[in-house]
Amino acid sequence: MAALFGRYYVKPTASAIRDAQDLFPRYRHYQEARRHALKLAFWPGFDGGGGIVEDLHWSWIDGMGEPRAGELRIHETIGGHNNLRIIFYVSTIVLPQDTMPRIWTLAVMQKKRTRFDSHDLSTFRGRLTILLQRHYS
Fold first, then answer.
1. How far apart are CA 18 and CA 16, in angstroms?
2. Which of 115, 122, 66, 91 is nearest to 11 (CA)?
3. pTM for this structure?
4. Domain boundaries, the chain
5. Percent of the chain residues past pLDDT 70, beyond the cut
6. Distance between CA 24 and CA 80 in Å, rounded?
């Protein structure tokens, strides 16, 4: 059964859900972005600094430090938004109720600059810190 669903559970945080709802008020656009996020279930692993998941590119976010977060790049326009990013964290710990590790989506955003600014990085770090304290402490 694990092969049918990939190698990871993909779980959105409440903040990522709120980001997506704000970005995509129309339900079908929200579901289209969600469909792309669920491709993370087939994420290939930690090798290298980036790669491809299904048909989307991903890379680690420069400047995050440890623990690392990655960005999944959506190249199509959804709901009038282009250059979309799904920020995610890959857990190496399998929670007691799970049979596979989780990939958590931390944020959904339209990236307007080449690099993430210090505010973006602080937001990602804060969301990741909360996630780790709630589920892995």
1. 5
2. 91
3. 0.91
4. 2-135
5. 94
6. 9
